[in-house]
Structures are given as structure tokens and as C-alpha cells.
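Hi support team,

I submitted a single chain yesterday and got back a structure, but I'm not sure I'm reading the C-alpha cell output correctly. Could someone confirm the output below corresponds to the sequence I sent? I've pasted both exactly as they appear in my results page.

Thanks,
R.
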Amino acid sequence: MQKLWHILRRGMVYETGILVIFYLFSFVLPLEQPGIGAVYFFLILTFSMILSLAQELFSVQRLPLLARYALHFAALLTSFILLYIVTGNYAQRGPSSFFVAIVLFAFGYVIVALPIALIRGKMKAKKQKSTPSTYQKIYR
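Hi R., thanks for writing in. Yes, this is the structure output for that exact sequence:
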């Protein structure tokens, strides 16, 4: 139950971040209607929950790190295609807009995932460096 609450809480944080980014873009760009409707709100909520659930793939230590990133990307790409491309009628606009949406999503994933992976790698290396590899008794 604790894990479920953690996933839900993290999903809400992701949704808030995505909505803030959308509102910042609508503030910068001159749009007639800067808000989003209820349908898009629930699409973003669903995507955020799937993102939070997919984030649990990184806790599976049996998989190599590259496999975890590949599965995470595949899960998010699948949810992006189902939630935004299919329901957003991008498929009706033609294969070129479908391809552009997927490429932009992949580019955005790399922009977000690469710095996170580098920071995690440095933190892990620093943690391994600071902890001694063998335990030495101090007291008899």
C-alpha cells in the first residue's frame, strides 16, 4: 500500500510539473485561449501516472541500466502514442505528423533523461567512493 501511495504522489508531482510547463509556454506564446480543457487535463493525469509507474522500472536491479532505460522509454512512448497521438487525431493528419510527434517525443526524452542519468551516475560513484569496501573492527 505504501508503494501505491508513493506512485500516486509522484504522479501528481509529475502532473503539476507538466501543467506548469504548459502554462509557462502559454504565457510566453501569444495564445487566444491559454488554459487547457478537462479532457487534456485527464490525458496529462493519465500520462503522469503511467510515467510514475514506469519510473518503478529503475528499481529493478536485476536488469542492466540500459535495459531499464529502454523499457522506460518504450513504456512512455507507447503511452504517448495511445494517449496523445491516437486521441489527438494526429494519425488523421498523415504519417509525417505522426513521425514528427514521435521524433519530438524521443528528443524530449533524451534531453530530460541524459542529465538525470549523468547526475545519478556521479552520485553513485561518489557514494561508492565514500564508503569503505571492507569493514575493519575498531573494538575487540
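A quick pointer for reading it: The chain has a mean pLDDT of 84. Let us know if anything else looks off.

Best,
Support desk
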